[in-house]
Amino acid sequence: MDLLTIGAFAKACRLSPKALRLYDELELLRPARVDPETGYRYYAVEQLERARLVAWLRRLGMPLARIREVCALPPEAAAKEIRAYWAQVEADTAVRRDLAAFLVSQLTAQPRKDTTMLELRYSAHSDRGRVRPDNQDTAYAGTRLLAVADGFGPAGAPASSAAVEALRFLDTEEVPAGDVLNLLEDAVRGATDAVRDVANGAGGPDEAGTTLTAVLWTGSRLALVHIGDSRAYLLRDGALFRITHDHTVVQSLIDEGRLTPEEATAHPQRALLLKALPGEPPAAPDLRLHDAHPGDRYLLCSDGLYGIVPDARIRTLLTDADAPDEAVLTLIAEANGAGGPDNVSCVVADVVESAA
Predict the structure, then answer these.
(1) H/E element holding 123?
(2) pLDDT digit string (tens) for 195-254?
(3) What is the Cα–Cα distance from 340 to 132, expressed in whole angstroms?
């Protein structure tokens, strides 16, 4: 058998020695021989075709687990799998294209010149799910305030409740449009203190924490505050946009290009948060304003929904539901129908022209 050193093989197949060592560990591309004394790897010339296929599939962005499946298939079946993968990539790219267009529209939008009065129609519900013994989520919807919090730790339920309760005064006060982000940021400081008090009362800072995603309605705009991995989505003109960014370890790896979204779904640290309340020291939340259009539908949810129901399915269910209460119950039923492994909370709000 003609054998190549790992360096020569890497050069021939255009995979780095580091990648070859990783693929050996993953049993994706095992060397033909390993020197028992030095551990040095040698590869057969006949392995070049498989190695080049692996390299090409990685350039496509295919996750390693799926590459392993493709390489195990006969040529025709492998080709079919690659076509299916690329069709999904194109669909995902179309979604990102819509998101890019939405962001450009948001950043270049001119202030509304019409005098149409807008209001929210809303619904909120939180469900224990099918597996967890307790519900640590809190969901709230009011005339001005929408919020979802996902608690964790032994005192997670009172932590999420305290965070939302600390914001509820915003639902009864007239909101000054020019100072809404500062007002919301101050309210989150109060929520941080409230969650810290819960943690201290339960035995220490490790006993409670929570995510928090909330929006405050000003009459024509929504002010968004976000920390953790609960999410906010916008359904506009049939397209679904995620308008929050997860504060998680796997999201940071995706941002750095070290992980694909497909690989993230099975990552062992996918639930590990980089930011949450109370935080030591307290982490800065994301804050931004969104112009509202009549017909917009907003969704706030915990990871018990999007972690089990794909975004494409969420878009379909949001689109098909006539009213916010129907949308909320349908989304929760979908998550529970898929096993309900986590608490699931949803807030849905429609932007409509005021009847007054």
Answers:
(1) strand 118-127
(2) 999 998 877 666 789 999 999 998 888 999 999 999 999 999 999 999 999 999 888 887
(3) 9
Q: Are 217 and 260 in contact (CB under 8 A)?
A: no
Q: Where are the alpha helices (DSSP H) in the chain?
A: 6-13, 17-25, 48-59, 64-71, 75-108, 156-165, 180-201, 249-255, 261-264, 303-306, 311-320, 324-337
Q: How much is the average pLDDT of 9-18?
A: 89
Q: What is the pLDDT of residues 48-65, one digit of tens each?
A: 999 999 888 988 888 888
Task: Return d(Cα 317, Cα 303) in angstroms, integer.
Answer: 17
DSSP string, 229-255: S-EEEEEETTEEEE-S---BHHHHHHH
CB distance 34 to 40 below 8 Å: yes
Tokens matching residue 76:
């025709």
In terms of Cβ atoms closer than 10 Å to its own Cβ (0-12, 13-18, 19+), residue 115 is exposed
pLDDT in tens, 113-169: 555 689 999 999 999 999 999 999 999 999 999 999 999 999 999 999 999 999 999
Tokens found for residue 159: 């932590």
Place of tokens 């119950």: 329
pLDDT, average across residues 166-194: 87
* Closest listed residue to residue 9, CA positions, set 29, 25, 27: 29
Directed axis angle between helix 311-320 and helix 324-337, to 10°? Answer: 140
User: Which of 88-97, 102-111, 178-187, 324-333 is least confident?
Assistant: 102-111
pLDDT at 349 over 90: yes
From CA 300, how far away is CA 215, in angstroms rounded?
A: 9
d(CA 69, CA 65): 7
Residue 65: closest CA among 265, 336, 303, 337: 265
Structure tokens at 277: 């309340």
d(CA 219, CA 176): 10
DSSP symbols for 72-97: TS-HHHHHHHHHHHHHHHHHHHHHHH
β-sheet with 297-301: strand ranges across: 118-127, 344-353, 297-301, 231-236, 239-242
